[in-house]
Amino acid sequence: MSIFGSGGKEARFWKVDGDRVRCELCPHFCKIAEGKSGICNVRKNSKGKLHTLIYGKITSMTPDPIEKKPLFHFHPGTSVLSFGSVGCNYSCPFCQNYSISQAKPENAYLRDLKPESVVPAVKKSGCAGVAWTYNEPTIWHEFAYDCSKLVKEAGYYSVYVTNGYINEEPLREIAPYLDAMNVDLKSLKDDFYQKMCKAKVQPVLDTIVLGKELGIHIELTNLVIPGENDKKEDFEELINWVVENVGLDVPMHFSRFHPDYKMLDKPRTPLKTLELAFRIAKDAGLKYVYVGNIPTNDRENTFCPNCGNLVIERWGFSISKNNLDGDKCKKCGGKVDIVT
Ligand code: SF4
């Protein structure tokens, strides 16, 4: 019988709730009736127990530059073996990966992958670690956890590219095996999260703060969508929160919007809007601010916060100059906040 026919593998983080099961993996806390799945489409009530339908089920396995995640301050210049499956606990109308994020497991082309095959695959690829990415990794918790543990034990790193919509207990569980996260911080406004993602902002903020506390390297990405989260006040509010709650060292990526999926009526983000966001973040004291998803771009370089020297020059997703000695600026010896 296929994994879908059998109801998948029993999940963690759930309880019986009357004649339903209550999933406690993410802040949606779906109450799921027999035979139905939660909002993410990948956790199903099968005979009164919650099952994950995507354990060991992948849509892709590809080496990428770590810079593509984007993670600019985490083992720069290394390649990372990137895995994706299907499903997401958001339903953003602008999703660039909607073909997998909004797909149901039974309709997707999924390949099997055993946890014990991941480390050999990383070794063979020559990558320095794994990324759980493309679709939302937090809803793939059981598989990402089992694999990340093996990956870490074998001396490789493991990273999430995530919307941050996960509850405290599962985040604490995976934290010892999760080295870095790029978290999408789309807005500070609950209205935005309700309208665009059918979610709430506070759990995302909690994940960022707790992730940092647990020693996970954090970078943030803000996708700037014209007319939705691109006002001066939006940037000021977001940056103020970052400064107060995460600190000046956190790398902040502003990303250009491109029309996609159901949001085809909006233009690309004007470059001057991205420049405004960049300026506000720099003026607030953030040390490492980047602008991504634009063609020729000198806003993706890293400068020493001590002497201003160019320490990493990037071209696309590759590094064209590296003036670092470990995490120290070669010119002044000052510390640059980079995990090497
Ligand atoms: S992980 Fe999926 S099933 Fe569980 S609460 Fe979140 S959206 Fe619902």
What is the strand and helix layout of this fold?
Layout: E1 9-10, E2 14-17, E3 20-23, E4 31-33, E5 43-46, E6 49-52, E7 57-58, E8 60-65, E9 79-84, H1 98-101, E10 111-112, H2 118-125, E11 129-132, H3 141-153, E12 157-162, H4 168-174, E13 180-184, H5 190-197, H6 202-213, E14 217-224, H7 232-245, E15 252-256, H8 271-283, E16 289-292, E17 302-303, E18 310-315, E19 318-322, E20 324-325, E21 328-329
Parallel strand pairs: 9-11, 11-12, 12-13, 13-14, 14-15, 15-16
Antiparallel strand pairs: 1-6, 2-3, 3-4, 5-6, 7-10, 8-9, 17-18, 18-19, 20-21
The chain binds iron/sulfur cluster.
Iron/sulfur cluster (SF4) binds next to loops.
| CATH homologous superfamily caption of the largest domain | Aldolase class I
Please estimate the helix content. 10-25%
Q: How many individual helices?
A: 8
Distance between the ends:
45 Å
Q: Radius of gyration from the CA trace?
A: 20 Å
CATH class membership of the largest domain: Alpha Beta
Arithmetic mean of pLDDT: 95
**What is the CATH architecture assignment of the largest domain?**
Alpha-Beta Barrel
Order of strands, main sheet, comes to 8-9-11-12-13-14-15-16
Q: What small molecules does this complex bind?
A: iron/sulfur cluster
Number of structural units classed as domains: 2
Number of strands: 21
H and E string: EEEEEEEEEHEHEHEHEHHEHEHEEEEEE
Low-confidence runs of at least 5 consecutive residues: 1-6
Tell me the CATH topology of the largest domain: TIM Barrel
Shape: globular
Which structural class fits the helix and strand makeup? alpha/beta
Report the major sheet: 8 strands, mixed
What percent of residues are in strands?
25-35%
